[in-house]
Amino acid sequence: MGKYFGTDGFRGEANCNLTVDHAFKIGRFVGHYFKKDGYRPKVVIGKDTRRSSYMFESALCAGLTASGADAHIMHVTTTPSVSYITKSDDFDCGIMITASHNPFQDNGIKLINSQGDKMEESMLLELEDYLDSNDNLPYAYGDEIGYTEDYAAGRNRYIGYLISLATRSYKRYRVGLDCANGSSWQMAKSVFDALGADTFVIGNTPDGLNVNVDCGSTHIDNLVKHVKEHHLDVGFAFDGDADRCIAVDENGNVINGDHIMYLCAAYMKQKGTLGDSKVVTTVMSNMGLYKALDELGIGYEKTAVGDKYVAENMRANDHILGGEQSGHIIFGRHANTGDGILTAIMVMEAMTETKQPLSKLAEPMIMYPQVLKNVVVTDKDETLNCPEVQAAVKKAEEELGEDGRILLRKSGTEPLLRVMSEATTYELCEEKVDAIIAAMKDAGKLIKIK
Question: Is residue 100 annotated as a catalytic residue, yes or no?
Answer without folding.
Answer: yes
